[in-house]
Amino acid sequence: MWIADDYGLFVFANHQGTRSLDLGQKQIAMALRDGRLSLLSEAALPAVEQGLDALVQKVYDKLAFDSCHDPLTGFLNRKAFCRALAQQIASPAPDEESSHCS
Fold first, then answer.
1. How many Å apart are CA 99 and CA 2, to the nearest integer?
2. Distance from C-alpha of 22 to C-alpha of 12, rounded to nearest angstrom
3. Residue 49 in contact with residue 55, Cβ under 8 Å?
4. 38-61 pLDDT, tens per residue?
5. Do residues 91 and 84 touch, judged by C-beta distance below 8 A?
6. What pTM was computed for the model?
7. Which residue from 26, 31, 85, 93 puts its CA 20 to 30 A from 58's CA?
8. Which contacts of 31-40 are long-range, i.e. CB under 8 A and separated by 24 or more positions?
């Protein structure tokens, strides 16, 4: 959003960063009153930052998944399978913990 120096014009942009809407003060006031516009919480992250955070998290999750899975089958790749197998072997089975004699 861009605001004129005299606060007489507000220019809104879409998620691609292109100009999508120009509104004057009266138009904004009427849109807020009618419920066509709403204020974002000042305590929350700005909308752009929320969108970027969500995008970064989505990319990170995809990279993490892709690094451990075969792209053709979706199964764990050899390295991830060996790591999971070693963790299972190293951790005691639930029955073993209770069957040990003291």
1. 69
2. 6
3. no
4. 766 544 556 667 778 788 889 999
5. no
6. 0.42
7. 85
8. none
